[in-house]
Amino acid sequence: MNHSSNEKEPETIEPLRYLSKTEVATVETELLRDYRFGQQQLIEIWGHACAIAITKAFPLSSLSKKQPTLLVVCGPEQNGSIGLVCARHLRMFEYEPTIFYPKRSAQSLHQDFTIQCEKMDIPFLSYLPTEVQLLNDAYNLVIDAILGPETDQKEVKEPYAGMLVTLKQVKIPIVSVDVPSGWDIDEPAKDGINPEVLISLTAPKKCATGFSGKHFLAGRFLPYDIQKKFELNLPEFPGTECVIEL
């Protein structure tokens, strides 16, 4: 029998698109304005997907310490709130997160996420020890949810500049949410913290080109029209997964 008539031409797979700071802002504005997503809804989707990515990169059974402790370091804006949501879901997944959130946002949206964590009895640190060994001993890994695409990374102010100095020295793995803190979103960093795992949200950012660690894409909710319009060429997620390793 001749099967050749049924054989499909091999599809050419377009490369995944890495977004600039401006494109990230445009996509988000469209989601909020035209597609009627709420900001709290987006933060929830991303934070949950981040938690799932962390469970894939660091399953409970793989952690070296007796307690499944994690330190989640949260910044003042949206990336920090994604960190709060991520911590809450990790608690549901039986990890033991501790949060360091030095400058709490006055926006009620961000306050809601803080209260949700407090009601889950997740401890908040009052300061970040500069004694790096204390962090190495106490936690299995650090989740960097400090500075996201919404922050001007060139002008990192205190307390974040000092926190980055500390995080550069830790020996335990760092997981960065969306953009490693201190990196310019539009280009790979020369110095700055060096995460072992990067979780890109919605689509990877330009700074992630050539990232050599484990790289996850998290959040599977983008309307197809937006995917087409921005030619994102997102990979096919397996089954019902909301996270894929790139």
From TrEMBL:
PROSITE patterns for the chain: YJEF_N (PS51385)
A molecular function (GO) term: NAD(P)HX epimerase activity
GO terms for cellular component: mitochondrion
A Pfam short name: YjeF_N
InterPro entries reported in the protein's UniProt record: YjeF_N_dom, YjeF_N_dom_sf, YJEFN_prot_NAXE-like
Residue ranges of every copy of the YjeF N-terminal domain listed in the record: 24-234
Protein name per UniProt: ApoA-I-binding protein 2
Naturally occurring in which organism (per UniProt): Onychostoma macrolepis
